[in-house]
Specification:
Elements: H1 3-7, H2 11-76, H3 79-86, H4 92-106, E1 110-114, E2 120-123, E3 143-146, E4 149-158, E5 169-176, H5 177-180, H6 183-189, E6 192-196, E7 201-205, H7 214-218, E8 229-233, E9 236-244, E10 253-259, H8 260-263, H9 267-295, H10 297-311, H11 325-353, H12 363-376, H13 392-399, H14 401-417
Antiparallel strand pairs: 1-2, 1-5, 3-4, 4-5, 6-7, 6-10, 8-9, 9-10
Helix pairs in contact: 2-9, 10-11, 13-14
Length: 419
């Protein structure tokens, strides 16, 4: 195409070329920016969800631990329990029955009773794991792996005489985390929850009870990173997040996981869909530009003239009608804008010069009318009447401002009737 041909391009073609260039550039910029921003936002939002869920789980387990501790402290102060512990070696069956009743009432899964030398008097569990009660007497959250299960464990000291400084024994109880982390917790956090130690998978709370590929979960990055990791579980892509709640040794680690399609959009699919939509939008935009370049210039000038008259304060000028639907809509919009401005000016005038409660002219209206009479009719005499309501404050204070407002409205109506 030579220089002469370029100069002879019609205005319509120039508009089309310009619009096409702008649209393609904008579409490319918007596509890249949108995808990057959406991906970053989704990752940030998902990380915040994982962090919040970790806090929720920690808070729940800490609260459960405190409830267990409070129940144990009450049991340790029970006189019958003290007597049975003191005579536990002579009457172990009575102690067992009493402890099982306490255990059932508290909702624990096992109980261990110790004497002053930390020797076991009673153990309601079937485990042979040796637990030192003094390791679990602090107010911290304690988790322990027993028989391939995770337990929340708490212990309190027991004194036969409350005044004595030393403990005469200890009571330790544990609750299986399977009873604490159930479907309701999974629903609350929004993630599937799993727990592991260094050797095995210990706990699973999922929405669909699907089988867990524990090898993938156990190979997640260590607790120090706490990062989002994409893994496959049961043949589906998931996002997982690994963390610790306590500093138990050996460590017990938790994993939150969620299906990728539930976590955020597949951005490759989103990119393809976005490109298709942009191409379709470009085609329609070019067709619309070609149509508008032929027909919109004349009616736009007419509407621009109307807009200038509206800008100058002329709200009564008629707005012409056009046969084209798009321009007709624009014309109607101008008409609506014109009517809206008139209505808003009337409302502004009402708010500025009339009281909103009584609809009587307010102070501004009085000043304006007084100034008008003084400036335009200096020789004309007129009077100013001042009206006051006695004990009106008493009415507001005794029977309320609503009744005071009603009284003002009634007085306004009577004043209006004097016209």
């Amino acid at each position: 195409m030579n220089l002469k041909a370029i100069r002879s391009i019609t205005l319509q073609n120039k508009i089309l070329i310009f619009v096409a260039t702008i649209l393609v550039s904008v579409a490319a910029i918007v596509s890249v920016t949108t995808l990057q921003s959406a991906y970053q936002h989704s990752n940030l939002q998902l990380t915040e969800r994982f962090t919040t869920a970790q806090k929720v789980l920690t808070y729940k387990l800490t609260n459960d631990s405190q409830v267990l501790r409070n129940s144990l402290e009450n049991a340790a102060k029970d006189f019958n329990i003290k007597q049975l512990v003191a005579s536990g070696l002579e009457d172990p069956e009575s102690l067992r029955i009493a402890i099982l009743n306490q255990q059932r009432r508290i909702g624990a899964d096992f109980t261990v009773v110790y004497d002053q030398q930390l020797s076991v008097i009673l153990n309601t569990s079937e485990s042979n794991d040796k637990l030192n009660a003094t390791d679990y007497v602090s107010n911290e959250l304690h988790l322990r792996t027993i028989n391939n299960q995770v337990y929340l464990v708490t212990a309190v000291g027991l004194k036969f005489l409350e005044q004595q400084p030393a403990y005469d024994g200890w009571i330790l109880m544990g609750i299986n985390l399977n009873n604490l982390i159930d479907d309701s917790v999974q629903t609350l956090t929004g993630f599937s929850i799993d727990a592991f130690n260094q050797q095995q998978h210990l706990l699973s709370a999922t929405s669909d009870n699907a089988p867990i590929d524990s090898s993938n979960l156990m190979n997640l990055p260590s607790i120090d990173s706490e990062q989002l990791t994409k893994i496959d579980i049961a043949g589906k892509s998931h996002i997982a997040y690994r963390f610790q709640i306590t500093q138990n040794q050996p460590p017990i680690e938790f994993v939150f996981s969620i299906a990728s399609e539930s976590a955020f959009l597949d951005f490759f699919q989103l990119a393809f869909q976005l490109v298709i939509e942009i191409i379709i939008a470009l085609i329609f935009a070019l067709l619309l530009s070609a149509y508008l370049s032929k027909n919109i210039t004349k009616p736009l000038r007419a509407l621009a003239s109307v807009a200038k008259r509206i800008q100058q304060g002329d709200y009564q000028s008629p707005i012409p009608e056009f046969p084209t639907i798009e321009v007709r809509s624009l014309s109607q919009a101008f008409r609506g804008m014109q009517e809206g401005i008139q209505q808003r000016e009337a409302e502004i005038n009402q708010l500025a010069y009339y009281d909103s409660l009584t609809d009587l002219p307010n102070r501004n209206s009085f000043v304006r009318q007084l100034q008008h009479k003084v400036e335009n009719f200096p020789a004309q005499k007129f009077s100013v009447l001042m009206l006051d309501l006695d004990r009106f404050k008493d009415i507001n204070d005794t029977i309320g401002h609503n009744f005071g407002d009603l009284l003002l409205k009634q007085i306004a109506c009577r004043i209006e009737s004097l016209k």
